[in-house]
Design brief:
By secondary structure, the protein is α/β, with parallel strands linked by helices. It has 39 helices and 29 strands. Strands 3-4-2-5-6-1-7 form a seven-stranded parallel beta sheet, with helices on both faces. Strands 8-13-12-9-11-10 form a six-stranded parallel beta sheet, with helices on both faces. The N terminus and C terminus are likely disordered.
């Protein structure tokens, strides 16, 4: 018999085989059949398989067998099991404790919440197996007793290694493993991973490129994924009134509720916490037996719903990406994905959680919400079943991680030769290409920031007073941003957390939002203690929190297939083929129902222009709107959009607003920009100049400045970066001060790595200029171009917001305060609530009606207006004030209301005012649309 089948268990010792029989393990799973013999031989290996296929036992059975059968007595830790989330430690402990007791091995857990007593006990009497996190390993390496305990480590298992490979936490861990190697000598490395597109690269990440066996289970053939766009029924029209939403969203809720009732246990995945809360509130209204689970809920709340679901007390768990990882919630019959999963890997990981009885098919349903969503989900499902998964994007050469680990190495030994630390760091795979010059710049920066002492004569790094404080404040590479605890005023219990950016920009006493599927009204905000006090309400018309986190980027391969699908179907339609037969043809190819496919192809109806795909870019013009249809995914479109925005803005001498999705770049340009300007930029930009152009565009955006502040903290240049009140704390000055430092280089690298695709975009420009990619134009908006408006639609916010939402907006704006300032005599200003402003404001000193309405914090604008001599910035402020004053003089209080809205400046206020409308509600609807637009696009404004 080959090294498969039951023979896999035969390589294990008698004690383990006996325990397997007692535990009910009669036949190994596929990853166990393939991997256990290799691991028993001591090979380094990466095991790639879905959650629930026994990956933990795959890795740990050979490790436990080796520990239990060792001839020599061991005094330290024999094996480390490293997991990315503390929540996983609870599951690992429950699953490993039994094995430890049976094999007479001590298994323990150590992370940030471990008590001092337990830590001391582990240092004095180390366990055989320690389950821990990447950050806690960092701390363990610096303790004298624990370093002695770590000398005996022979095995390290890294769980969810695919998650770590794409994060700075993982880059930090790879150096941590090399530091561990300095203590223990070589050890066996075992990685457990979900399906990835480049398992060998992840294996190199794990082992430092020293060689790694890869055991990969083919999951694509075991996926049964159905893509459905629910059709609105008469029942949904009635249900929409009950759920206080539109009929379309009601149809989604009804369809998913039916799926939950058809299955015993369902995981319902959504892409954002905001969607989880909004959707959860609707299911609560419907009476669906489900729990809500995401990272901003308290630990107790998450554990409670996990346990309820595992015990069968809940029919479904509505969750975000945290449940992609291996948290044990018991049997899952079916997985529902609400909206496109955006990436193949996410669909595979999520649907892969269903099933797992012996060789069972994993079944899932993707419920789509608009045409782009449907075509995207069809492409992703097809690629998943064919095994076309995206590669993990490793953070190669992150300099702030080098800085962090330099301090760690100094903490390990107290003193180290600089080039010895360079040798340790560059053994880690993500840092293999760091050159000595870049490394020395990092060393000098740390020395200047008093993190380490650099003795240049001896070429040594030594501990100093600030090293200990820096290191323990920066154990994690996760950026340090403030979060506010949300507490119920009645019970005093924590409901969850809110991101600081939401609190600063949106939250005020009286505002309503959704959390944990329930509605809450803010009663107080304690900024020092970072606590938001709330009270529960029954009103379902609240504002959904604006959670942290970028939109999941759609890869180029997915966007390209959507373009191909559109082109093939669109050309058939343009040639006169009946829509029904075209939909039927696509449905056969993608194994989908005809109604869903027809809905996805609906944006092709009436599209007479060339159809954009991977080989055709279509540019649309209408007034100040420019829309570039390009099917290249988020990162390429973001890169190309930034270049267009920067160069067109440079030509016009003013800002150009930009918004992108995987299939479009939408620009709002000054009137002096013509179609010819846009074409010239696309056809005339030198691809070699792209990096410099992107860097120029980033300097005018908050993204780079915000990232620079975080990176500077990791270098010890800023003490404990916090975002609070930082929007005006001098990020421009910080950018200017740090521009020629490794901190700036790292911030730029990270933004490019996470959000952009420089090389791919340069290749696209070359293809466009050589004629390989066609560039077409049309002087109107096309159905495909307009399809992007649907993809940006906020969940549960119908196109015509319902009356209670409009009333909430009206009341909020009327209660807001504005500064009224006379622009004639320039001697009078007053802060006043909007509702107390006269229909035609006028200055009480000179009687002029030329009065500007300004934001209540815009005192510097008033000062600029009064200044006799003004700098460039003050001139801009004054010009803005005079434009606001002209609006108020012409339109009175209506202009004051529009100007008081969030992110609505004089230009957009004028657009809102000048629209013809039937009633006042429409006026406030336009304001609400503009506020939402501002919230989506504010990071792109210089």
């Amino acid at each position: 018999m080959s090294e498969t089948g039951v023979a896999a268990f035969s390589v294990l010792g008698d004690e383990v085989r006996s325990a397997l029989s007692e535990r009910g393990f009669t036949t190994p799973t596929e990853p166990q059949r393939e991997a256990i013999p290799r691991l028993a031989r001591g090979e380094d290996a990466l095991v790639v398989a879905p959650t629930g296929t026994g990956k933990t036992e795959t890795a740990m059975l050979p490790v436990l067998d080796a520990l239990a059968s060792a001839d020599e007595e061991r005094f330290g830790i024999g094996a480390l099991y490293i997991t990315p989330l503390r929540a996983l430690n609870r599951d690992m402990r429950e699953r490993l404790e039994w094995w430890g007791e049976t094999l007479d091995l001590d298994v323990d857990v150590r992370h940030g919440d471990t008590t001092d007593y337990q830590r001391q006990k582990q240092a004095n009497d180390p366990p055989d197996v320690l389950v821990t996190t990447p950050e806690t390993l960092q701390a363990m390496l610096t303790g004298s007793k624990l370093r002695t305990a770590l000398e005996d480590v022979d095995h390290v298992v890294v769980d969810e290694v695919h998650e770590l490979a794409a994060a700075k936490r993982g880059a930090q861990l790879t150096v941590g493993l090399e530091r561990l190697r300095e203590v223990s000598g070589p050890f066996q490395r075992i990685g457990l991973s979900a399906t990835v597109g480049d398992p060998r690269e992840v294996g190199r990440f794990l082992t430092g490129g020293r060689g790694c066996s890869v055991v990969a289970v083919d999951i694509g053939s075991r996926l049964d994924v159905n893509v459905v766009r629910p059709q609105v029924t008469d029942r949904d029209e009635r249900l929409s009134r009950e759920l206080v939403t539109d009929a379309e969203t009601a149809s989604h809720v009804r369809f998913i509720d039916d799926l939950i009732r058809e299955n015993e246990s369902v995981l319902l995945f959504v892409n954002t916490r905001q969607t989880a809360e909004a959707l959860g509130s609707r299911f609560k209204e419907l009476g669906t037996n489900l729990g809500v689970h995401h990272g901003s809920l308290s630990k107790e709340a998450r554990i409670d719903v996990e346990d309820q679901f595992k015990a069968g007390e809940l029919d479904a768990l509505l969750c975000t990406s945290s449940m992609e990882l291996g948290i044990d919630v018991g049997r899952v019959d079916h997985v529902v994905q609400y909206g496109s999963p955006r990436q193949v890997s996410r669909l595979v990981q999520r649907v892969g959680r269903a099933g797992h009885r012996r060789d069972e098919i994993s079944s899932g349903t993707v419920v789509t919400t608009h045409a782009d969503d449907t075509l995207e989900a069809l492409a992703i499902a097809r690629q998943a079943q064919d095994g076309d998964v995206e590669p993990a994007e490793i953070h190669d050469g992150s300099l702030d991680t080098v800085a962090n680990q330099l301090a760690g190495i100094v903490m390990d030994t107290g003193e180290v030769r600089a080039m010895e630390s360079y040798r340790i760091i560059t053994r880690a795979y993500p840092f293999r290409d760091i050159d000595e010059a870049a490394f020395k710049e990092v060393v000098r920066e740390l020395a200047e920031n008093n993190v380490v002492w650099l003795d240049e004569d001896r070429d040594t790094l030594e501990k100093r007073r600030g090293t200990w404080q820096y290191f323990y404040q920066n154990l994690s590479m996760i950026p340090d941003e403030a979060t506010y605890d949300v507490e119920d005023v009645a019970s005093g219990q924590q409901v969850g957390t809110l991101d600081e950016r939401f609190v600063v920009n949106f939250a005020t006493p009286g505002e309503v939002f959704v959390q944990r599927g329930e509605m809450w009204r803010i009663t107080n905000i304690d900024e020092e203690e970072e606590i938001v006090t709330v009270s529960p309400i029954e009103d379902p018309a609240g504002e959904v929190p604006s959670w942290v986190g970028s939109e999941i980027p759609v890869p180029r391969a997915v966007a390209g297939e959507v373009g191909e699908l559109r082109r093939v179907a669109g050309e058939q339609l343009q040639e006169g083929a009946p829509a029904e037969s075209v939909a039927a043809h696509v449905a056969r190819r993608y194994d989908a129902d005809r109604e869903t496919v027809a809905d996805g192809l609906s944006q092709l109806e009436g599209h007479e222009a060339p159809i954009p795909d991977a080989e055709t870019i279509l540019v649309e013009f209408r007034g100040r709107e420019v829309l570039v249809n390009c099917c290249y995914g988020h990162k390429v479109n973001e890169t190309l959009g930034r270049v267009l925005s920067a160069l067109l803005g440079q030509r016009a001498g003013s800002s150009v607003a930009m918004e992108v999705d995987p299939y479009r770049i939408e620009l709002e340009v000054p009137r002096r920009i013509s179609a010819g300007d846009v074409m010239e930029v696309l056809e005339g930009t030198d691809p070699d100049h792209l990096p410099a152009l992107v860097e120029l565009s980033l300097k005018n955006a908050d993204a780079l400045k915000f990232k620079l502040a975080q990176v500077a903290t990791k270098f010890g240049s800023l003490k404990r970066w916090r975002g609070r009140g930082s929007t005006d704390f001098g990020r421009d000055r910080l950018l200017a001060a740090l521009e020629d430092t490794p901190m700036y280089d790292e911030a730029l690298r990270e933004v490019r790595h996470e959000d952009l695709a420089i090389e791919e975009t340069a290749a696209l420009l070359e293809a466009l200029q050589s004629g390989e990619v066609a560039l077409e134009t049309v002087g109107e908006r096309t159905p495909i171009g307009l399809g992007g408006n649907a993809s940006g639609r906020e969940l549960l916010s119908p196109e015509n917001a319902d009356a209670s939402v409009i009333q909430t907006v009206r009341e909020r704006i009327q209660s807001d305060r504005v500064i009224l300032a006379c622009l004639h005599c320039r001697e009078w200003d007053r802060k006043q609530q909007v509702k107390r402003v006269r229909d035609q404001p006028e200055c009480p000193k000179c009687g002029s009606t030329r009065v500007a309405a300004l934001n209540p914090w815009a005192d510097e604008v008033v000062s600029a207006v009064r200044a006799d001599e003004k700098d460039e910035e003050q001139e801009k402020m004054t010009e803005r004030a005079y434009r606001a004053g002209s609006l108020v003089q012409t339109h009175g209080k209506q202009a004051v209301v529009a100007l008081a809205a969030r992110g609505v400046g004089p230009h957009n206020a004028a657009r809102i005012i000048n629209r013809l409308r039937e009633d006042e509600d429409e006026f406030y609807r336009d304001i609400l649309r503009q506020e939402r637009e501002y919230a989506r696009t504010q990071s792109f404004w210089g």
